[in-house]
Amino acid sequence: MDDIKNLETTKTNETISINPANGEVIGRTKEDNIQTLQAAVIRARIAQKEWASFSFDKRKEYLLKIRDFIVENADEISEVISKDNGKTRTDAISTEVLSSAMAINYYAKKAKIILKRKHLKAGSILTINKRSYVDRVPYGVIGIISPWNYPFAIPFHEIAMALIAGNAVLLKTATQTLEVGKIITRAVNSANLPDGLFTFLNIPGSIAGDAFIDSGIDKLFFTGSVAVGKKLTLKASEKLLPLSLELGGNDAMIVCKDADVIRAANGALWAGLSNAGQSCAGIERIYVEQEIYSDFIALLKHKLKRLRVGQDVDYNVEIGAITTKQQLETVKLHLQDAIEKGASITSCDVDETTINKGQLHPPVIIENVNDEMLTMKDETFGPLLAVEKVSSIEEAITKANNSYLGLTASVWTKDSKKGKEIASKLQAGAVMINDHLMSHGLAETPWGGFKLSGTGRTHGYLGLEGMTQPRVVINDILPGVKRNMWWYPHNKTVYDGLKGAMHFLYGKDFFTKVSGLSKLVKVFLRSFYDEKL
Predict the structure, then answer these.
(1) pTM > 0.90
(2) DSSP E strands: which ranges in 248-361?
């Protein structure tokens, strides 16, 4: 069991994939090298030129074939995700397979509108003859380094956005979830895209970031830890390579005294424990107003006790495995730290035999918490729910914002107006009212965080625009013009005319405006004849 999900590369340059729920070997994948990556970039750049020439409607047809593959093979995909990552199949289909199909459908059908040419209104009457528009131009070759916690959905959103926008894609999934990478490849290849437009690579994580940045790609999307994100930022700065980074969270849930306690408790369990708590946007800290704390915590404990932990063999468990051994140790460390610092815990009853079969950890409610505990300061990324009583919403907001991370947050109240007001004060990239965690599944909503939770946005119109660069085109429509007013030769009349333009536009009184206009007209008229230097 010691090597579960460590996935050591064998002497034959293959990576072994292991089911974290039971230790079973489920696949082997040939390891790629830097030369393979560089060759893939060359092929991708050739394919991208052809792909970018296709209309949105033609690209849409290809993407909808990928969507259809996902729909038709949902059971197999869910099972592969479950075995490779350790989550339950219900988790897999709800948060990964279904959401990916919805996302592809959205981007395929909406990109044409979102990325269409945008005509700009003139900013001043002075330059009304300058008509401008902005085109969104694909970057070219997009690199994606995706994580193991949502190995299908996270990269697929970015793949779909990149492709519909006219880019080629190079994908490196986490070493721990290569079997998911293979089925992603099958899904994409089912559309018969131009050869080389999409490539899946198995490059060791220790060299992948540097290798991708040095490979000649045009933009990199990375989802992972803050530490690695910082290193990539430094490396990319040498080439001014654009980065989009999603680096995790320690997300807060605020439960107001007028909240629906049943809904809040149900939401806390699902959003905090889905995927065994291994969600960047999962609930980790819960702040509850003192008036309903007793009712909320009692219900939360009651419901927690009924959760089932184990390997998914017949859809009858809620909490699956921790994907990596390292992550399991982090969860244990955070829990032990909280206990040593005075916390009390409540856990569901799990048979030791079940726990010992794989990398499993029972879900735990932690009370009597304080700000010095690791689970309150750092991202735990596991099935721990820290709950704290607060005397007011103001205190809850202050505590929620007291973090170097700011990915998502949630507010639970029956008063929609109050919920929006609280949301406006939270330092997070996405705030949900009476829900949590599902934001990533809404293709139309931008995804990304504040503070050290990352830079840039994916998903929605911002995500689609992030797959492109803006190119502005300015056209002078005034006929007969030989020169702009400020072109050579220069003299006092030109200076006075340009100064008059400001007086005409922004003068405080009528006479100043009229005087400015007369000087402006003089210099404007010189635009229609050539004047020797």
Answers:
(1) yes
(2) 251-255, 283-289, 344-347
Alpha-carbon span 342 to 453, nearest angstrom: 29
**The pLDDT value given to residue 265:** 98
pLDDT in tens, 336-381: 999 999 999 999 888 777 777 789 999 999 999 999 999 999 999 9
* Residue 372: how many other CB atoms lie within 10 Å: 11
On whether the CB atoms of residues 498 and 486 are closer than 8 A, the answer is yes
Catalytic residue list contains 280: yes
Q: Which of 246, 318, 379, 388 is catalytic?
A: 246
Alpha-carbon distance of 291 to 313, in angstroms, equals: 42
**Burial of 121: CB neighbours in 10 Å, binned 0-12, 13-18, 19+:** exposed
- The secondary structure of residue 97, as a DSSP letter, is I
Amino acid identity at 325? K
Report the mean per-residue pLDDT for the chain. 95
Phi and psi at 452, nearest 5°, equal -85, 10
Question: How many Cβ atoms sit within 10 Å of the Cβ of residue 123?
Answer: 10
Strand partners, 367: 344
Residue 83, Cβ neighbours under 10 Å: how many? 25
495 phi and psi angles, rounded to 5 deg: -60, -50
3-state secondary structure 5-71: CCCCECCCCEEEEECCCCCCEEEEEECCCHHHHHHHHHHHHHHHHHHHCCCHHHHHHHHHHHHHHHH
Which helix (DSSP H) or strand (DSSP E) does residue 212 occupy?
A: helix 205-214
CB contact at 8 A, 387 and 32: no
**By percentage, how much of the chain surpasses pLDDT 70?**
97
According to DSSP H, which parts of 276-404 are helical?
290-305, 325-340, 352-356, 374-377, 393-401
352 catalytic? Reply is: no
Question: Which secondary structure element, helix H or strand E, spans residue 334, and what is its range?
Answer: helix 325-340
Q: Give the residue among 457, 408, 459 at the shortest CA–CA distance from 435.
A: 408
Angle (deg, nearest 10), helices 74-85 and 56-72: 70
**Catalytic hit among 96, 179, 256, 280:** 280
Residues 6+ away with beta carbon under 8 Å from 315: 88, 89, 90
Q: What is d(CA 115, CA 95) in angstroms, rounded to the nearest whole number? A: 27
